[in-house]
Specification:
This protein is α/β, with parallel strands linked by helices. 39% of the residues lie in helices and 24% in strands. The chain has two domains: 134 residues, Rossmann fold (3-Layer(aba) Sandwich), CATH 3.40.50; 228 residues, PPM-type phosphatase domain (Phosphatase 2c, domain 1).
């Protein structure tokens, strides 16, 4: 695109002088010159052509002088529009005022066209830089909007209606939350009916952050849910999910998963822990114990793996609390970690609490510990309780 220059001067000779001197650049389409004879005429032309790049304005003109025109141009708040002021050499007071009022540069009469050419080139460099910055800013704003929408979509695909199964609310309490560290996250929780008696619960954490993790999260959730709803046992579900995710994984991404099948009639739990944090069991009497550490590998990294399963039983009043490492690895301003001990101590205070009270209490404890420090990782919690 040519650089559009508006020359504002009441001397007609300047028009011939500029078009003659810059004729080569005009022929090549590098410059386009427009001419006005006073500030009022210039403003009218600027309303008709809003894409001027440089205003080359005399200071002393009839109807509207150059300083008033400069004030009007400043009101347009266009940082990519540069003003070069022109006046007699002895008119340094007005030139200084113009520079103080935001003029890019100045030239003195009689005009040294070689010097003016350099000044215009310098202005063009500044204009190009500003336009590029404006374009990048627009792209970032567009990306920010897209990320916000993606975050809303990601939250929408997670179960958010509680209680999720009203027909068994009298025997099962469920609560969950996911707070991403960025606009979108890599953690996810899920739960779904397998049959009339069994419900599948998933807690998972995708490696990495941001958009790549969010995309891999969506793929992982879909696969685990689809395989789990077929009634496969936890170890088989995780094994099949691993084989499929290994084919989809890029940049060595992987997922830690704790997958549970819970029997609402008997309270029995079958689970498979694929490299995830060991959940905590809060007994009805208030005692808290961690499940055994995982002996399985993460999924999505290595094909051909087999996975071990475990089992336990929830008695009436028992609650299982699942979480991601954004909880125990949360840091405060002193770079201290929340840690497993604080997590354990907090859960010890949850005797008799509902699942929602437990989730909210733990979240508040982590938030209070962080004391305003930036959240470094997604924080995801899921609990269910036999009533």
């Amino acid at each position: 695109m040519p650089t559009k220059i508006l020359s504002v001067d009441d001397e007609n000779d300047l028009e011939l002088l500029l078009t003659q001197y810059f004729r080569r650049k005009i022929r090549k389409g590098e410059y386009e010159f427009y001419f006005a004879h006073n500030g009022v005429e210039a403003l009218t032309m600027m309303l008709q052509h809003k894409d001027f790049d440089i205003i080359l304005s005399d200071i002393n003109m009839p109807e509207m002088d150059g300083l008033t025109l400069l004030t009007k141009i400043n009101e347009m708040r266009n940082p990519a529009l540069k003003c070069i002021m022109v006046s007699a050499y002895g008119d340094m007071g007005n030139i200084r005022q113009a520079m103080n009022n935001g003029a890019f540069d100045f030239a003195t009469k009689p005009i040294d066209l070689d010097d003016l050419s350099l000044t215009i080139e310098k202005a063009i460099e500044q204009i190009d830089y500003i336009k590029q910055s404006q374009q990048e800013h627009s792209q970032l704003e567009s990306l920010k909007t897209d990320l916000a929408v993606a975050g809303e979509i990601q939250q929408a695909i997670l179960p958010r209606v509680f209680p999720p199964f009203p027909e068994i609310e009298s025997v099962l309490d469920i609560a969950a939350s996911m707070t991403p560290a960025k606009d979108v996250g890599g953690d996810f929780y899920d739960f779904f009916r397998i049959d009339d008696e069994k419900i599948g619960f998933v807690m998972a954490d995708v490696s990495g952050k941001g958009v790549p993790a969010a995309i891999f999260m969506a793929v992982s959730r879909t696969l685990i849910r689809a395989i789990g709803m077929q009634g496969n046992q936890p170890a088989e579900t995780i094994t099949r999910a691993n084989e499929l995710l290994c084919k989809e994984s890029v940049n060595c991404m992987f997922v830690t998963v704790f997958y549970v099948i819970y029997n609402t009639k008997t309270g029995e739990i079958d689970y498979c822990n694929a490299g995830h944090n060991a959940p905590y069991l809060i007994h009805a009497d208030g005692n808290v114990e961690a499940l055994p550490m995982s002996t399985n590998c993460v999924i999505g990294a290595i094909e051909g793996l087999s996975f071990n399963a475990g089992s336990l039983k929830l008695e009436n009043g028992d609650m299982l609390v699942l979480y991601t490492d954004g909880v125990n690895e949360a840091v405060n301003n002193a770079l201290e970690e929340y840690g497993e001990q604080r997590l354990y101590d907090t859960l010890c205070q949850m005797k008799g609490k509902t699942c929602r009270e437990t989730i909210d209490g733990l979240s508040e404890s982590v938030k209070a510990f962080a004391d305003g420090a930036p959240q470094s990782d997604d924080i995801t919690l899921l609990s269910f309780k036999r009533k």
